[in-house]
Design a protein that fits this description.
Chain lengths: 132, 134
Amino acid sequence: MSRRDGGGHRRPQGSGFEASAWFFMRVSGVVLLGLAVFHLFWMHFVIGVENIDFNAVAGRWEGRWGPLWRLYDLALLVFAMAHGFNGLRYVLEDYVQRPGRRLALKSIAYTLGFLLISAGAYIIFTFDSGGV
Amino acid sequence: MSQPINLGPRSWLSYRGGSGYLLWALHRVTGLGLLLFLALHIVDIFLLAFGPAAFEHLLVLYTSPPGRLMEIFLLFGVLFHAVNGLRIIVQDLFTKSWERQRHDRLIVVQLVVFLLIFLPAAWIMFGSFLESLS
Ligand code: HEM
Ligand code: HEM
């Protein structure tokens, strides 16, 4: 794989894992462009950071459109984590050359990623305010 | 696979000179920064499981003055990475655009788009920061 001016990799040859990862980075990038930018905009300019509290989230996740917001947050979680962790993998492969160290760091990264995705999905599926 | 390019810490950021080098470095730094924020963010949202008190305890991170400043950085990171990433994706669809002149022109367009969105939004956020001080 080769990098180039301005960021990003040149498309890897063939149809192996690296080619799929390259393609996924572009698809997830476009998806995140919608999901993450809108999320940030909404939280900051529509709700307002000073108005966010437990009840605000309960109102979103348990309101009329609750299931849709939960689905939205789940999609944001999965795409951002997969995109971000594949990006982290690129960075590790660039800077960590020794095989042993590379394997160790990747294992730690993937374990952390797994824990974070689990925690994020857990709260999305189980959140219950106890009736507000 | 990536080539062995590791020549020690000083080489990490000096990969390839040229016009796109700064963009390459910024794309990398903002991507990693976003990932770090996302990790923190998942932890803070997870605290919802422990009830209002636990959740709202950590929200000070966002509403305090340093939190307000962090948000401006966050906006910078998301917006820069998004615009630069979109340019990369578009150039990969239209590979002729990698020709030097078109590439340079696209970078100018990209910076204009970035500033047109970033400056007004950052201005408003800076207002919230000043308010949070009083
Ligand atoms: C907002 C929409 C986004 C777009 C359009 C986008 C686009 C891209 C593109 C095109 C690449 C280059 C992939 C390659 O090397 O071939 C990339 C890399 C990366 N992205 Fe994103 N991305 C977005 C959001 C995010 C988010 C939310 C995160 C963090 C969770 C993130 C983290 C990363 C990282 C760590 C890299 C690797 C950087 C490197 O190798 O230098 N991105 N992104
Ligand atoms: C100041 C900026 C931000 C604020 C105030 C904010 C606020 C929130 C809130 C209140 C929730 C709870 C769910 C809901 O109400 O829908 C949430 C969830 C979430 N946000 Fe953000 N957000 C911000 C930036 C971001 C960014 C930049 C990303 C992407 C990298 C992101 C990704 C997520 C994800 C993935 C979830 C689901 C979390 C989980 O399942 O644990 N947020 N955010």
